[in-house]
Amino acid sequence: MWDRDELGAWLRLLESPGIGLDTARRLLLSLGSPQAVFDLPGAAWQDLLTPKQRESLSRPPEHLDAALDGTWAWLQADPSHQILLLGDADYPPQLMATADPPLLLYLQGRRELLRSPCLAVVGSRNPTAQGRDNARAFARELAQAGLCITSGLALGVDGAAHQGALAAGGATIAVMGTGFDQIYPRRHQALAAQISEQGLILSEYTWGMPGLASNFPRRNRLIAGLSLGTLVVEAALPSGSLITARLASEAGREVFAIPGSIHSPMSRGCHALIRQGAKLVETAQDVLEELPPGSWPGSPVATSSMQPSAPFEALDCSPAQRQVLELMGFDPIGLDALQARGGWPVAELSAHLLELELNGAIGRLPGQQFQRRGGA
Which of 71, 83, 185, 197 has the most neighbouring CB atoms within 10 Å? Predict the structure, then answer.
């Protein structure tokens, strides 16, 4: 159980301006605990800190009281609300092995998942319909194989990955870039509640921390660090998902990428990763084959996440709609180009496209383009 004064010392150390993780680690290595740091006179910090850092630690941060009150109330509210320290016995070994592991993590949910074999599934916040389907399908199959799916709770691919794992009855970890009082994005509050019951949410950011742009690249190192590998589903250039992939590679973890159309901006990040050595994957089994032997507890999966789930003739669509699908091919295409290929009247073609979209056979892309989905 935590003591309020002990928690206050930790927050003061970690929230003091100019005191980063490296400095905090150095102080703790020399002095043993945050309380010991603040029990010493300032002169004792002479050899450990710069003058600005000594000045910063000499007085509590302005927001410390609010952060302490909020964190303390959060800890008392539910037994699943916990704090994990770097020295704790169940600190994730995969994360411990990275270059910059957090000293303190806030947890909500199933703490035991930190010892599970994890795979990160990340990608665009604005994926194509097919990209969203792929994220959900890969996460579902990998969760069924026994992997815990790690992602960032963001819109798009992240949310679909969490949903796929949950739908399979599997495990998922959401890594936030905010404090626990500010679920981001807001529209994922219901998803976050479901994850906290069936999986785990964690953050290194204290109570009151908003979703600052600088938080999310740092958050990505935790997604990669917790995982045996990182699967990028869709990503433009540049993309935060490519940061996660780079961090995974630097930590000696596997990087996987799903290829897409050469005409889709959402595929360019994945293609760049493949050129740099990431493994091109078409199925969940492709991912599992590259993981270290014995690192995941499940059985191989036979389902293909990329190939059509039903034969073309079995689709519930008219002969005219099948002809439209044939004209589309598998690359993104605009209405004008499709009309030029088939010579259809624009009004009739638009009606067929709308029906196909409502049936889930195609997806609408930015710029009034359309693309067939995996089951079409």
Answer: 71
